[in-house]
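Note to self: user wants both folds in one dump. Writing first protein now.
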Amino acid sequence: MKVLLIGSGGREHALAWTMSKSAKVSEILVAPGSDAMSYVPGCRVIEIAESDHEALKELALAEKVDLIVPGPEGPLVEGITDVFQEAGLRVFGPTKAAAEIEGSKEFAKKIMDRYQIPTAAYQSFSSIAEAKAYVDTCGAPIVVKADGLAAGKGVVVAETNEEAYHALDDMMTAKAFGDAGRSVVIEECLRGEELSVMALVHGETVVPLVSAQDHKRACDGDTGPNTGGMGAYSPVPHLDASYTDEIMQKVLRPAARGMSQEGRPFTGVLYAGLMITEKGPKVIEFNARFGDPETQVVLPRLKSDLFLAMMRILAGEEIELDWTEESCAGVVVASSGYPGPYEKGWPFQLPSLVEPTAQQWFHAGTTKDDESTGGDGAWKTAGGRVLLLATVAPALDEAVKKTYQVLEAGEWEGMYYRKDIAGKVLN
């Protein structure tokens, strides 16, 4: 069977790598793909932009693909699933109406309110004056979120009222995130341990994946600005088993049921970003697709066939996924300056792996000079997040140690990485 995978980042690289293991998959078309994905067995890179919905539809029809998997949130929120479905194509992704659970934080909050899903207290604002007055009333620490999509960066945890005012000015006046900041959600600052749980969903069928913990802040010690994610690990040893059932019963199932009752049945990957508070799990955010970089540490632990799992869920079957008991740690190498301005084009070499069968590079923002057209064959940076190295090992401390052993052997001019991924749980 043939798959069309949409996207070009580290998450899509991990999805292509995972699906290439399926005995049922004959070819994976990746659009727009990346130079790195062209090295995945069975992958064919096709240079069609993820925003060109009509061209992607025509490609899927011409190639007679059996399943389409959109990776990034942008095309989903823009309605790419609807375009495919209207052409009679099979898609593992939410419709435009269902993807609003990620596309609008205010909408997601209303769903949580309506279906008693635990979350932080909040208010929404389209007036900056009213938003600042609310900050004055509540006081810091407080969280300011751009309502729309902001590539994982439209969230500010303000420790002072002044920081909150500055965030509001950036989002609503300076338009730092474009139209995404026309309105904002301001919510109480939850304290506790963060946890990410994704699930494969079709209507009210919910199949959870194993837990992961992402590291959003740019710098060691969870300092610096929020990023799209600087590393992750799976499972989360002290949070995993004790909260799995509670998260299913209080978060994932009510969300799937609620979306169906709203007339927006959800199909695809429902991602719950959670804070484990003294009062139990509370939802920080919902996403409508695989998380990045959580996918890069969750999928290496999957023993089941991901392609078959998606096909069976779409057919209405209840399934269980099989996982290795081992841990996986992943560390992101990012361009210096990220998540702010950064330079592209820094050349680098991938250092040798210490465990080639248990480690995998997932490329997020790289290009390779084409030797056939006079290039030197070198890898170069082409994005904010450049690479993630994932390591699977019997214990988390071993996975982390071996990941850093490889990274420390590399030369990363023009790049940086956090030195403390999973540090809190291991210390």
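First done. Writing the second protein, which came from a different request thread.
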Amino acid sequence: MEEVILVDEQDVSTGTMPKLEAHEKAVLHRAFSIFIFNSKGEMLLQQRAQNKYHSAGLWSNTCCSHPRPGEDTATAALRRLKEEMGFETELEKVFDFVYKASFENGLTEHEFDHVFVGYHDGAVYPDKNEAAGYAFTSVNEIERLLKSQPELFTAWFHIAFPKVKEWRES
């Protein structure tokens, strides 16, 4: 059974809980989001697999997940990028934020999200159990799609994307 690390608003660990239970009870837990760019400045988007327990089939950032109990968040980010998208690259933590988003199936994401950025121009080999598809997409096109078809994207991407865009422009 997969567990997540419960945290307070300062990201101090307060224990662990099974992942599904944490999402059922809307308990704050540690997570990470990875945003990969290529040399053209395009962002690598992932379309979540249809078998995901929430946000199935929606587009989002390159990779996101939770560190395991006892696992460093940066190490977990590198591990999951390789597992989900089939490549490795150096990652830089750029900021973190807390968000809460509820879903129609009764689950809630309440996460202290560590955001990492990396760069990659090589091949992508997504795990089909994690990602139904992927696309390198310009920031301008992502902004256009977020406005014209917001329902195509995950709740957390709507929150994190503008923060990443602002970080890149600063």
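Dump finished. Worth passing along: The radius of gyration is 15 Å.
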